[in-house]
Amino acid sequence: MTPRKSSGTAAERGDWAVPYQPADIADLDPATADRRGGIPKPPMLDAVYRVVETEGPIHRQVLLRHLGELLHKPRPSSIGTSVNAAADQLRDEGRITEAGDFLDVAGRPCAEARWPLPGLTQRPVEHVAPAERQRALLGLVTDRPRGLGAEETVGEALAFFGWTARNAAARAKLMADLYRLRDTGALTGWPDKLEPAG
């Protein structure tokens, strides 16, 4: 059996592949986390928007954790009500969108997939938006002009996101994403020689 050739290092991938960079907003004031009268203060609205703009699509739990870190809150749950109220208000105003538990800037397509930088926490599969997983799958297939099989593509995506080959939950979600891409016509050559559609 021929050893499987990977699609290359991150640097050899197309422009769809970028490192995951958590938001680093140095000018956030810890007082941003305060809330009066049930209405998110403008600084919290701005903080939530800036993190979503930098890290979107971002899972609500990751948003809360990252804002907790940026605001020096040892218990991010202490600002959960304020963060969720700000996110809801931004969504209601049409500035951000929500798909499931994921938030992103309104009108922005998912054009990139992000791999974990060494030393930073890898995101569990539940914290990677379906749109981002699908972008990675399409990118991996595109980077291999001779085609990958469905199983090979899932294996490459597992490695891309830093997940082990034994991660059954990630494998199942990635395979479901491949089926979705096939069913919407984004991929052809199912299952042995996948290629992006036209």
Would you write up a description of this structure?
This protein has 198 residues and is of the alpha+beta class. The chain contains 6 helices and 7 strands. The strands form 3 sheets. It has a 3-stranded antiparallel beta sheet with strand order 2-4-3. Strands 1-5 form a two-stranded parallel sheet. A two-stranded antiparallel sheet has the order 6-7. Helix 1 crosses helix 3, helix 4 packs across helix 5 and helix 5 packs across helix 6.
What distinguishing features does this structure have?
disordered N terminus; alpha+beta; 198 residues; 10% strand; two-stranded parallel ribbon
Helix content: 40-55%
- Tell me the β content: 5-15%
- Shape verdict: elongated
Enumerate how many helices there are, as a single number: 6
Strand adjacency order, main sheet: 2-4-3
Instruction: Sketch the major β-sheet.
Output: 3 strands, antiparallel
Structural class assignment: alpha+beta
For the secondary structure, the number of strands is 7
How large is the radius of gyration? 19 Å
CA distance, first residue to last residue: 32 Å
Unreliable stretches (pLDDT < 50, length at least 5) are: 1-11
Mean pLDDT: 88
**How do the SSEs run, as a string of H and E?**
EHEHHEEEHHHEE
Topology, please?
Layout: E1 17-19, H1 42-55, E2 58-59, H2 60-70, H3 80-92, E3 96-99, E4 102-105, E5 113-115, H4 130-143, H5 150-161, H6 168-183, E6 187-188, E7 195-196
Parallel strand pairs: 1-5
Antiparallel strand pairs: 2-4, 3-4, 6-7
